[in-house]
Amino acid sequence: MALLIVGLLTSAVVMADPVKDFEKLEDEMESAFEAYVAALDKRSESEEGKGAPIPDSRPSVLAKMDALAAAHVGKPEGAEMALKTFIWSAMFEVDVAHLFDRFDRIAKYYPKHDGTEEIVAMVPDVFRASGAATEWIGGLNAIAKASEKKSVQVAAFFAAGQLYMQTDKIDDAKKSFQRAAKLDPDSESGEVAKGYVYEIEHLQIGMTAPDFTTTTLDGKKVSLKDLRGKVVLVDFWATWCGPCLGEIPHLKEAAKHFDGKPFEILGVSLDDFEEMLEATLDHHKLPGIHTWEEAGRENEVATLYNAQVLPTWYLIDANGVIRAKDTFGEALIPAVEKLLKKN
After folding, report:
1. Residue 188: CB atoms within 10 Å
2. Where would you tag: which of 21, 63, 107, 260 has the fewest CB atoms within 10 A of its CB?
């Protein structure tokens, strides 16, 4: 009888399926996330309980996912566990204090996994939540060195370049982007990397803004030089860009705040259809000079200013020198005031 019990226990251990266990935890995490969002919505609808902590079981579920991934580190099934645990933590902002530890596990044990490229692409958006940039860059370089896939290597060098840019290490950023571009110059990532090298060389704060001439909606030509003597916000945007539309209230507020002062908004639209742009401008009563070219998303002015992500803003002083970039939201008015005081 004792032997039978031992045999059954041994069989249970052998038959344990860590992959299914992890899938159950993912289901549990999804339920926990839905419950957390529902609790947020309920609190926002009522004045009662505002300021009180919201029950959140997500961290405890993530801890179980972490433990299972750690128990199978280096094993084939451990790769998916490690990658998915990182994604749950990053995308849903769960226990971000240990986000780098989850990335480090992937960099050390799964640099060659097919899913690692997705993780690498997420790093520039999430690294600030945990760990110093140098640690993340070290992990990215380790992945680039260990991986045999060119696309992963390009993605890792490109992500490292973005981290360097975000931490004002411009020379290091340029080298990293150059490595990405050299590895695969004809790929999309390689082309984007070349654009950032161009931006570093020609579009840094303190450099003279490249002049351009484009067409207003009423068919007139306007150049950046025409606006010398004014502080100019060059706004690359499109009506199909949600974040761009989200900035419209701030643009209107700035235009009203600086009414009668030497400040101009110069909108460069990347819309494919002029009619959509006109309808949006009319609806929002957006002030400023607004331009459009038939090239749409291939607008040469956007290429000249490496506006690969929308919105992209360049704040240019009265002498035509770039003084700030992407001063979105409430940062816009103070940035303009600072430049107007120097006029």
Report:
1. 10
2. 260
> Do 198 and 249 fall into the same domain?
no
Q: Which domain holds residue 319?
A: 213-342
User: Is 208 part of any domain?
Assistant: no
Give the chain's end-to-end CA distance (angstroms, integer): 94
User: Tokens 């004792």, residue?
Assistant: 2
Distance, CA of 251 to CA of 286 (rounded, Å): 8
Residue count of the chain: 343
Please, which residues bridge with residue 233 across strands?
265, 315
> What CA–CA distance (Å, rounded) separates 162 from 170?
10
Span 80-115, pLDDT tens digits: 999 999 999 999 889 999 999 999 999 999 999 999
Number of domains present in the structure of the chain: 2
Interval 324-334: pLDDT, tens: 999 999 999 99
* C-alpha–C-alpha distance, residues 159 and 176, integer Å: 9
Contact at 8 Å (CB) between 301 and 212?
yes
Give dist(CA 180, CA 163) in Å, integer. Answer: 14
